[in-house]
Write a structure and sequence with these properties.
By secondary structure, the chain is α/β, with parallel strands linked by helices. Helices cover 42% and strands 16% of the residues. Strand 8, helix 7 and strand 9 form a beta-alpha-beta unit. The protein is globular. It binds pyridoxal-5'-phosphate (PLP).
């Protein structure tokens, strides 16, 4: 990989292709026709990626990291007068949504699940039946804290049957796992530039029905994170952002979308990530590392591994792998000691095999990990 001393096995920012990075060599004028056209094409492509029913849907791009877009949705979608948000959480990103809502003084109900258990649609249904004040339901698709998948389609169906609005943080799954927002009944889907589309950081995006965005008019608790106003400006002025946009990131994202298409779309990308993930888990098991999440709930996005024993020194493991050309992630689970390895980005089974060889080497040197 050109100019890169290591590959990132982290769930965003992640390793991007040389071609994605190279298109950032040009400076752009934000109101020039060519740039606006680029933005409009990206918005169209995102809608097409998100559903076969693209006529009714629209995409809004928002500056900042993914959390800024989550905050924009939470702060714009729920009416100021009457509204209560149910957040089902089994990890740090779900809990972050609850924190955003409470900072915005939005009434919240929290369904707290264990970090190694998926959110149960039945539990959601029970809460919704008990508390008719709830108007909106938010859930994370792939909880990147652990790599666990939540049954978003079933959850959204339950919520919609009871007349609720659905918000899905698909930050780490969109582009890497097939989703159809129309079929799954997701009212607002959130993702960002530096996850499975394999772009660089700088903006997030929302996919929703046009009428869903129009319904946000006048509800925003923030000027810069006003989802409706951002959309309105992009629509009215054909791709214009209200405030300075991350131009180089936008151009790189366009290239990343083309490369996703070239790979064969989300279906093929998902296959590669699945291959990376299953290869990793199988080989790690042979060395003595156990995955934290059961296989049937595990996403192809990121894998949490338990420390093999009490003497395991993550810092030394991390440094060793970094020198070998791999950057991994510390754990984020609250109750047990884990570390994480991302399976997404410009990463192929050959890379996983090389990583596993380095981990074997570490185990042999340290002699600490036994089968
Ligand atoms: C990456 C991620 C986010 C956003 O994180 P930022 O650091 O703000 O980009 C939100 N939710 C999930 C599930 C994520 O994986």
């Amino acid at each position: 990989m050109m100019n890169n001393p290591y590959i990132l096995l982290t769930p965003g920012p992640l390793s991007t292709s040389d071609t994605v990075r190279s298109v950032m060599q040009k400076d752009w004028c934000t109101w020039d026709e060519e740039y606006l056209q680029l933005v409009q094409t990206i918005r169209q492509k995102l809608v097409i990626l998100a559903t076969h029913q693209h006529i009714d849907y629209t995409a809004v791009l928002m500056q900042g990291s993914g959390t800024f877009t989550v905050e924009s949705v939470i702060g714009s979608v729920i009416p100021k007068e009457k509204g209560k948000l149910l957040i089902a959480t089994n990890g740090a990103y779900g809990t972050r949504i609850a924190k955003i809502a409470s900072m915005l003084n939005i009434p919240v109900a929290v369904l707290q699940e264990k970090e190694n258990e998926s959110i149960s649609p039945k539990d959601i249904e029970n809460i919704l039946l008990e508390d008719p004040d709830i108007t909106h339901v938010a859930v994370v698709h792939c909880e990147t804290t652990t790599g666990i998948l939540n049954p978003v389609e079933e959850i959204c169906h339950v919520a919609k049957n009871l007349g609720k609005v659905t918000i899905v943080d698909a930050m780490s799954s969109f582009g890497g796992i097939e989703i159809d927002v129309h079929e799954w009944q997701i009212d607002y889907l959130i993702s960002s530039s530096n996850k499975c589309i394999q772009g660089v950081p700088g903006f997030g995006f929302v996919i929703a029905k046009r009428e869903g965005i129009e319904a946000c008019k006048g509800h925003a608790r923030s000027l810069s994170l006003d989802l409706y106003d951002q959309w309105y400006t992009m629509e009215k002025f054909y791709g214009k952002w209200r405030f300075t946009s991350p131009t180089h990131t936008v151009r790189a994202f366009y290239q990343a979308l083309l490369e996703l298409e070239k790979e064969g779309g989300v279906h093929e990308r998902n296959k590669r990530y699945e291959e990376n993930q299953t290869l990793l888990v199988d080989e790690m098991k042979k060395i003595g590392f156990q995955a934290f999440i059961d296989r049937n709930r595990q996403s192809p996005i990121i894998t949490s591994f338990l420390y093999p024993d009490d003497h395991f020194d993550f810092q030394s493991f991390y440094q060793f792998l970094k020198e070998k050309g791999f950057v991994i992630y510390p754990g984020k689970v609250s109750e047990v000691q884990t570390f994480r390895i991302g399976n997404i980005g410009e990463v192929y089974p050959e890379d996983i095999n090389k990583l596993v060889d380095s981990i074997k080497e570490y185990s042999t040197i340290k002699g600490a990990i036994t089968l």
